[in-house]
Amino acid sequence: MTERIFVALDVDGRERAVEVVRAIAPVLPHFKVGMELFYRCGPDIVGILKAAGAKGIFLDLKLHDIPNTVARATAVLAEIGVDWMTLHASGGRRMMEAAREQAEKRAAALGRPRPKLLAVTHLTSTDSKMLVDELGSAEPLDRAVIRLAVLARDSGMDGVVVSAQEVSAVRRVWGPDGVIVVPGIRPAFYRAEGDDQRRTATPAEALKQGADYLVVGRPILRSPDLRAAAEALAAECEGGDLPVSPSEGSP
Ligand code: C5P
Q1: Ligand 1 centroid – CA 108 distance (Å)
Q2: Is 214's pLDDT higher than 90?
Q3: How far is the CA of 109 from the centre of ligand 1 (A)?
Q4: In the chain, what are the domain boundaries?
Q5: Does residue 187 line the site of ligand 1, with CB under 6 A?
Q6: Does the 2-238 domain belong in CATH 3.40.1550.10?
């Protein structure tokens, strides 16, 4: 169960990231690295965190560019030992297929597993009004999310990142094998004061809806005792009557 949680390392530098990994990895071994940490520290941060005890690294850079550019970037990420990575489904089928092909080729050449490719549908910061007013789309947000989730499935992605509200609908179109990752998780022990997340769920709710992996950041990072917060989260997840994930144990 603890392998189904990514701790979001939304911290400003290498020292704090290593401190968090050392404190938490014995309880929660998988970590998500976002743009801030990656752009500050560079690709070496992946190996540094693994040396500090991280078992799996999810690199959340949300790639979106022409197919050739994204495919070449994906090949580099396969080289540096990333285990999961994100790209925007709205980049289109050719972009996603090219990324998958290059990830496979580069990983095979190195004799290691390729990164699992996770598609972002619509960001949780996007709402229906923005879709209409700014992006000129008449499609309701919930339908747009499903359409992009289907496109991602048909373009060779391993899974998607969606909010807890969308999990059950996305699970229906993906079936049991797709990997569904859900951020915006708020454990019962956490008081979310001044927090910007809106479409939140408890770990038990998200898992019950069909999530395979949860992303949890501030409920752990804001705790004065990192290890205790990780243990409280693990206990809360273990306590529920949770379904077994189809992708448990990967990578
Ligand atoms: O601190 P918190 O638990 O809200 O962190 C959630 C993490 O998940 C952050 O790193 C955030 O960027 C990421 N995320 C999100 N919503 C998405 C995609 C990623 O909150 N739709």
Answers
A1: 31
A2: yes
A3: 33
A4: 2-238
A5: no
A6: no
